[in-house]
Amino acid sequence: MVMNIRVLTPDRVICSTTADEVVLPGLTGQVGVLDGHAALITALETGLLRIKLNDKWTPIILCGGLAEIDRDRVTVLVNDVEELTDIGLSEATQELEKATLAVENAKTSKERLDASVELKKATARLEAVNYLS
After folding, report:
1. How far is it, in rounded angstroms, from Cα 77 to Cα 110?
2. What average pLDDT does the segment 86-92 reach?
3. Looking at the record's lineage, which domain of life comes first?
4. 49 and 124 Cβ atoms separated by less than 8 Å
5. Band of the pLDDT at 133, cuts 50, 70, 90?
6. Which of 9, 14, 61, 88 is the most buried (most CB within 10 A)?
């Protein structure tokens, strides 16, 4: 059986499709969702949303938000998404290393916070590259 999933930002619909399985980047770890899942509202971390349909995974990088799950429907409300570009494995790895160094070298709380968000995005990009290759 399939479920419906919608990913929405404040200004647009990112996707509205069906899925066999959805994996969300929850605050305490990944949240796997199958058809018939118990009702749940959960906060989302910056990270990789994965949508599986017909044995094919589609990754979407989310920038924080909420998800509402209700049996056969998943609604994801996010601040923003990052478009997946044609980035290669080596480039994604370099971005992750650069983001890791930025966190280590941050001098102020704001720099550390900004760098940690970029680190989460870089990690999600690398995961996305692995799903696309």
Report:
1. 25
2. 81
3. Eukaryota
4. no
5. low
6. 61
Same domain assignment for residues 20 and 55: yes
Collapsed DSSP state (helix, strand, coil) of residue 110: helix
Question: Which range of residues forms the domain containing residue 101?
Answer: 89-132
Q: In terms of domains, do 46 and 95 share one?
A: no
- Separation between Cα atoms, residue 43 and residue 129, nearest integer Å: 24
CATH number (domain holding residue 122) = 1.10.287
Question: Sign (positive/negative) of CA torsion 37, 9, 79, 57?
Answer: positive
Q: Which residues of 87-101 are buried (b: 16+ CB within 10 A; e: fewer)?
A: eeeeebeebbeebee
Residue type, 64: G
* 69 shares a domain with 12: yes
